[in-house]
Design brief:
Layout: E1 2-11, E2 14-20, E3 25-29, H1 36-48, E4 68-76, E5 79-87, E6 95-98, E7 101-103, E8 115-118, H2 124-127, H3 130-144, H4 146-168, H5 179-215, E9 222-227, H6 239-260, E10 271-276, E11 279-280, H7 281-284, H8 287-309, E12 314-317, H9 326-334, E13 341-345, E14 356-361, E15 364-366
Parallel strand pairs: 3-13, 3-14, 8-12, 12-13
Antiparallel strand pairs: 1-2, 1-4, 4-5, 5-6, 6-7, 9-10, 10-11, 14-15
Helix pairs in contact: 3-4, 4-5, 5-6, 5-8
Bound molecules: adenosine-5'-triphosphate and magnesium ion.
Adenosine-5'-triphosphate (ATP) is lined by residues 12-13, 30, 32-38, 59, 61-63, 319, 346.
Length: 368
Amino acid sequence: MEIEAIRLRGFRNYRALDAAFVPGVNLILGDNAQGKTNLLEAITYLSTGRAFRTRKEQELILFGSDFADLEADVLSKNRDKTIRAVLFPGRKPRQLYLNGVKQKNFTTLEGELTTVLFCPEDLSILKAGAEKRRRFLDFALCQLRPGYSRALQEYQRLLDHKSRILKDWRERPEYLDILPDFNLRLAQFGAVLIAYRANYFEKLSRLTAEYHREFSGDREEITMAYHTVSTVENPLAPRSQVEQAILQHQEAHLRAELESGQCLTGPHRDDFEVCCNGLSLKSFGSQGQVRTAAISLKLSEREIFRDDTGEEPVLLLDDVLSELDDGRQDFLLNQLKSGQVFITCCEARKFTKLGSVTHIAGGQLQPG
Ligand code: ATP
Ligand code: MG
């Protein structure tokens, strides 16, 4: 997977950018607030169909411009492709194109350009609540497994229904008649999600521990544990067994669910724990440790994707080097030998040797 060139018109602080990139490391250099992260945001938008810093598409359009046009030439699966998105303010829907052909929605563009992004907000995967960790797992698995993505959507739909039942059953007691049916289907789809997550998590935790160990010069040992519905003793057990365990949990919590009006049982409450040298990173990790572990997670995500599909996602590293000591910086820079990498930096320092340098100031390429 490789981005050969990108053209931006009216995107964030880019009035007009035409940039070409090399297959290896692309260092994006510039002072604060010049457009480095904006460039990575444009790339992830073409990769995932959404911006990682905002849900409001309007914010992506250059102030005063009546559209934003993003286009990338991509080499993937040995073919040259062009991916393009045009965004408009207000309610007018965006337009998406693949090789100049208009697409109905982003589904047909999925997988055309895969990326793994590390940005400072990703530290919250380890520091914030369980939802961030679930989102990380869901996002990685949806890119990798269409079956997971479908099961997740169905699970979510069923969960919304059940939530309504639990909220309204006092006024509409007849709702209780259909609750067992929803519970059964939630257990079936829940077991599918747990199987995918547990399998993925096994690889993820092994690789993350390896990366982190090397990263820290053998000083730190990461251990990770996947937590799902408490009655599921072995999340890797055959699906029917997991399904039974979820049903059991539902039964035991039926009363509590009716009383609280909330869905208390199922993998929508899953979480995972990360410890460093036996101590929870969330509670005790230093800034450098948390950053090291978060980057290790992302490098592992990339490696799993490559092993699974034979294609290496483009690695996007935003402001990755701050808070890392020299040893950790060197390790990371040594990890960038394969595939295409974009790495943003304020100062060139020792990094210019890594690959091609693109200077950005005020949303424009600077010569030299
Ligand atoms: P840092 O090193 O501080 O992270 P950066 O180079 O990554 O800086 P960006 O986050 O890319 O900086 O943002 C650069 C600038 O883009 C900001 O000053 C911001 O005001 C501007 N900007 C963001 N959205 C828009 C927009 N829609 N129109 C015009 N300018 C915008
Ligand atoms: Mg930035």
